[in-house]
């Protein structure tokens, strides 16, 4: 197999391992859904970019190795169970499920998303619940500063795009709302 051909990492039910030595560049964010064949990232090796695909793995990204050097067999991604509202649809359906007619509530900046005001408390909003315009959906923590993530429309919360404690980038969807 040529060096730049797509690779699938060695897997066990919960961990995706590096198929080669090089510099790891993830293509997913925490909380992303993984289905068979999805691009996980790239490994740059001796000036050649190696695409790393999921093989037959299915789940939701729980932990993601940051950009940097990687050795053969090291953990690239740890998978967890699918988030509530996603598990019932199945991983493949959840990834391909249409967002037509839905409004994405996005993270305004990179940080850690929290769906409840504090551990053990109920979430700000639940799947299938009514959310008012400017109603709080989550909190975004950046350097110990918490910023509310609010809905831009009134409607029904269809599903979350991440789980509590996930790292997100600016513009990443946090939740999907079906407007009234």
Provide structural commentary.
The termini are far apart. A four-stranded antiparallel beta sheet has the order 1-8-6-3. Mean pLDDT is 78; it is low at 1-8 and 86-97. It is elongated. The chain has two domains: 15-80, RNA polymerase II/Efflux pump adaptor protein, barrel-sandwich hybrid domain (OB fold (Dihydrolipoamide Acetyltransferase, E2P)); 98-179, OB fold (Dihydrolipoamide Acetyltransferase, E2P) (Beta Barrel), CATH 2.40.50. It has one helix and 16 strands. With 180 residues, it is mainly β. The longest helix is centred in the middle third of the chain and has 6 residues, at 91-96. It is 3% helix and 42% strand.
């Amino acid at each position: 197999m040529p060096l730049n051909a797509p690779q699938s990492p060695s897997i066990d039910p919960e961990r995706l391992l590096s198929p080669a030595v090089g510099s790891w560049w993830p293509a997913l964010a925490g909380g992303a859904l993984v289905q068979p064949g999805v691009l996980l990232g790239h490994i740059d090796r001796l000036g050649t970019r190696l695409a790393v695909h999921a093989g037959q793995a299915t789940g939701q990204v729980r932990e993601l190795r940051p950009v940097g050097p990687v050795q053969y067999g090291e953990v690239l991604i740890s998978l967890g169970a699918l988030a509530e509202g996603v598990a019932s649809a199945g991983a493949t359906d959840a990834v391909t499920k249409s967002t037509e007619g839905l409004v994405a509530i996005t993270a305004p900046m990179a940080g850690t998303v929290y769906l409840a005001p504090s551990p053990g408390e109920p979430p700000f909003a639940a799947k299938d619940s009514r959310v008012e315009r400017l109603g709080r959906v989550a909190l975004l923590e950046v350097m110990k500063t918490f910023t509310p993530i609010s809905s831009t429309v009134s409607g029904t919360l269809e599903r979350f795009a991440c789980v509590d404690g996930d790292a997100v980038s600016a513009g990443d969807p946090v939740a999907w709302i079906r407007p009234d």
